[in-house]
Task: inverse folding
């Protein structure tokens, strides 16, 4: 049982806690001595615990085996019951079949007797019918003359009916033809309308495309003109820049020339000074 296992576990936990407390209390050499003394006790306790655990496991296994055996027994009993029921059903079916056979045989015998009686009655009826037929033949001979007249009338009526039927058929055919023609006309009209609509749509699309293309072309031309104008302006600016550069170059050249002239003048002055010094020294 599960509650028993929980009790055993609680006891073991308590014992382990006691051991831990004892180990904590022991210190130094006393601990070693007690270990030597109580070593055998602990080993015994451990052995006992192991034995208890083994026994519990074995008990659990035995219980499981018992349960399995019980289940198997129950299944076997159920199978046996089913077999018995099947056998009983088969027996009942056999009995029913036998009863049905007996009933059928009795009914067949009764039917045979009834058939014999019916045959006798039929023979009597046939004799009566033969007598009636003889009387009817005499009456038919008299009626044949009248039937000749009736046949003629029937033929006339049939001919008239046939003519009427033919007329009706012709009318139906005409109506069908007219209906077919009308349907054809309607279809043609619809097709024509659809074609016209499609053509109109196509024309409109073409017009729109042309107009759009023309607008696009005009826009492109305008853009090209603007680009050309911009290019011309850029060229003019470049020319102006070139002219400015040329002017700057000319100015630089002039400045260089002036510098050269100044340098020449300075050189001439130095020469003059040197000459003066030489003269004075001389």
Result:
């Amino acid at each position: 049982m599960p509650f028993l296992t929980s009790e055993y576990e609680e006891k073991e936990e308590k014992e382990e806690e006691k051991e831990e407390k004892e180990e904590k209390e022991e210190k130094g050499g006393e601990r070693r001595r007690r270990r030597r003394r109580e070593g055998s006790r602990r080993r015994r306790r451990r052995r006992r615990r192991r034995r208890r655990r083994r026994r519990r496991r074995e008990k659990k296994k035995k219980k499981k085996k018992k349960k399995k055996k019980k289940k198997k027994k129950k299944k076997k009993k159920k199978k046996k019951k089913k077999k018995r029921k099947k056998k009983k059903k088969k027996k009942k079916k056999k009995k029913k079949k036998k009863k049905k056979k007996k009933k059928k045989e009795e009914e067949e015998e009764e039917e045979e007797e009834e058939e014999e009686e019916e045959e006798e009655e039929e023979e009597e009826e046939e004799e009566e019918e033969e007598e009636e037929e003889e009387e009817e033949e005499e009456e038919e001979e008299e009626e044949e003359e009248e039937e000749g007249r009736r046949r003629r009338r029937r033929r006339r009526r049939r001919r008239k009916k046939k003519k009427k039927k033919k007329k009706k058929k012709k009318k139906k055919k005409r109506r069908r033809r007219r209906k077919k023609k009308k349907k054809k006309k309607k279809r043609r009209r619809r097709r024509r309308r659809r074609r016209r609509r499609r053509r109109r749509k196509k024309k409109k699309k073409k017009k729109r495309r042309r107009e759009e293309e023309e607008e696009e072309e005009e826009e492109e031309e305008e853009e090209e003109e603007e680009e050309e104008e911009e290019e011309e302006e850029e060229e003019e600016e470049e020319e102006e820049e070139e002219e400015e550069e040329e002017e700057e170059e000319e100015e630089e050249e002039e400045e260089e020339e002036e510098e050269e002239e100044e340098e020449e003048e300075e050189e001439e002055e130095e020469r003059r000074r040197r000459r003066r010094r030489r003269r004075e020294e001389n």
